[in-house]
Amino acid sequence: MDANTGAPGSHAATAGVSKFTRLRRLLARPELAFLMEAHSGLSAKIVEEAGFEGIWASGLSMSASLGVRDNNELSWTQVLDMLEYMSDASSLPILVDGDTGYGNFNNFRRFVGKLCARGIAGVCIEDKIFPKTNSFLGENQPLADIEEFCGKIKAGKDTQSHPDFQVVARVEALIAGRGVDEALKRAHAYADAGADAIVIHSKKSSADEILDFCRQWENRVPVVLIPTKYYRTPTERLREAGASMIIWANHNLRSSIKAMRETCATLREQETLLEVESDVAPLGDVFSLAGAQELEEAEKRYLAASSPTRAVILAATRGEGLGDLTAEQPKCMLPVRGKSLLGRQVDALKRHGVEDISVVVGYRGDAVDVAGISKIDNPDYQTTGEARSLALGLGPDAADTIVSYGDILYRPFFLALMEDREEDIVLLVDPRAEETRSGRDAVACSVPFSDDPGIEGDAPRLTGFVAGGGDGEWVGLLRASAAGAARLQETLRGMDESGELDAADLGRVLTVMAKKGETIGVVYVRGFWRNVNDLMDLAQARDAV
Ligand code: SPV
Ligand code: MG
Question: 348 CB less than 6 Å from ligand 1?
Fold first, then answer.
């Protein structure tokens, strides 16, 4: 958002008009304008949401919201920081309560320079002494020397970097008990010094003095009123008196104090959220005020669109080698220290961000019960093999896919290892000595495993599955990019057409592809995985986790 124009501003009439100009127009127009107090980015948003045309950045409210007194306990740079949040959060022009200008003309002009740079539309300074005291506290507050205060106004006007930045002079003569004549004398001096508008302030519950001032002032420059104490006076009377602007000076702060107290008291007493929930803003409101939706849309525009990875787990076989243990369930459901083989795989995939997990089931598919998976049935599991199950699992869509056997256990980092390679299909292969292998999926590779393949050694590729020996054993995990998955599907279709598919295992499919010249990458991993074909494997798997 542009700090000066608040670019996504909602009012057509103000689109493209700077915040400075908008505040000047609010003060100058004949129609009465209203500023509402804010003291944070959140309250600034709520003011705008309510339809107000401008914000009063109240010194009292900003101080109180940070738990300090309205006695210049906040430094001017801290105020500036709060203003930045408010200005970023809202497209409305902000008139900031600049107290006495944080020192003499020099401190004030430096403040004005920074306000202009941050797109704060105007500042109000009061003719009291630094450090100030809130106008509603104590009696006979000392006033600034008129000449000194006029110098401050001039310094501010000479410093502003935007022609419409507003310097509003606040007359505290009535607050100090010095009467309407003193107030008028000061107001004229300040207007002569270049003030764009005058605030005439009073702490009386009657507006008589204010109305008297307005009558005699005759709108020489616009008049701003803060009717906190004379709130019973109808707004209509203030309008008729010629006020240009009214400031509701602290009412967001005070309403939040009341609401927070009530919530705290209820919770302290009841120790349950039941009664409170309906009295507080819904959480959705919090996210929407913070702009969650804009971020969601921006993510769609700016984050690289990576097609989500899915997984296909082949788990259609019973696992005869495990005897009675698989009488009622397929081996993927065998528990390994309290969690099934399949459940452990699903956990690893989810940790890796894979949400779309399909499990191809066959034998006792009804007993495959793991949260977060979808089941695909291979009704011919007894007469077909892994290749048919894979064809069913991949379906017609080609997406980035992890394929695994349902009976393996592996460390979750295996999934990341397959991402580091450029090939469209990548296998994990364990090169350990033949005698430690299960003997299931022996593979031959273009480059054997080496403890030190060099910095840019040739990346190993699959040559084909072999009957024994070879360079290692396929772990039972592969990753195919969307393009790789498309080529896998194409190969499976071709094998189906030639009648080869039903008898084929995955080794056969990958060998067909390698022989056709497809590049299939291999990543060597030594250990950190198990497959479970028999009771011995199961015992070892249980020891390994
Ligand atoms: C403020 O809001 O901080 C003001 C207005 O200065 S008043 O508290 O009425 O003085
Ligand atoms: Mg103040």
Answer: no
Q: What is the largest CA-CA distance in the chain?
A: 109
- In angstroms, the CA 249 to CA 252 distance is 8
Q: Quote the pLDDT of residue 306.
A: 60
Q: Are 389 and 501 spatial neighbours (Cβ–Cβ below 8 Å)? A: no
40: tokens are: 């944070």
Contact 115, 107 (CB under 8 A): no
Any atom of ligand 1 within 6 Å of the Cβ of 226: yes
Classify 380 as helix, strand or coil. Answer: coil
DSSP letter string, 32-65: -EEEEEE-SHHHHHHHHHTT-SEEEE-HHHHHHH
335: which strand partners? 340
- The 3-class secondary structure across 389-422, one letter per residue, is HHHHHHCCCCCCEEEEECCEEECCHHHHHHHHCC
From the list 477, 415, 472, 478, the residue with the least C-alpha distance to 447 is: 472
> How far from each other are the two terminal CA atoms of the chain, in whole angstroms?
53
What is the C-alpha to C-alpha distance for residues 220 and 224, in angstroms, rounded to an integer?
Answer: 12
CA–CA distance from 242 to each of 30, 34, 82, 185, 216 (Å)? 9, 14, 32, 19, 11
Rounded CA-CA distance 387/352 in Å is 25
Nearest CA to 432 out of 455, 409, 448 is that of 448
Q: Is the CB of 249 under 6 A from ligand 1?
A: yes
Q: Is 343 helix (H, G, I), strand (E, B) or coil?
A: helix
What is the mean pLDDT of each successive set of 10 residues along the chain, which is 545 residues long? Answer: 43 78 98 98 98 98 98 98 98 98 98 98 98 93 97 98 98 98 98 98 98 97 98 98 98 98 98 95 95 89 75 92 89 91 94 92 94 94 94 90 94 89 94 73 92 82 91 95 94 95 94 95 92 82 78
- From residue 507, alpha-carbon distances to 443, 504, 513 in Å are 8, 8, 10
Instruction: State the ligand closest to the CA atom of 249.
Output: 1
For 301-342, what is the HEC assignment? HHCCCCCCCEEEEEECCCCHHHHHHHCCCCHHHCEECCEEHH
Ligand 1 close to Cβ of residue 58 (< 6 A):
yes
Q: How many CB atoms lie within 10 A of CB 66?
A: 13
CA-nearest residue for atom 7, ligand 1, is 135
Q: Which domains are assigned to the chain?
A: 19-257 (3.20.20.60), 307-449+457-544 (3.90.550.10)
Task: Tell me whether residue 420 is one of the annotated catalytic residues.
Answer: no
Is beta strand 33-38 parallel, antiparallel or unpaired with respect to 54-57? parallel
Query: Whole-angstrom Cα distance, residue 33 to residue 27?
Result: 7
Best CA proximity match to 417, nearest among 528, 340, 321: 528
Distance of CA 254 from the midpoint of ligand 2 (Å):
15
DSSP state of 460: P
Q: Which atom of ligand 1 is nearest to the CA of 124?
A: 6
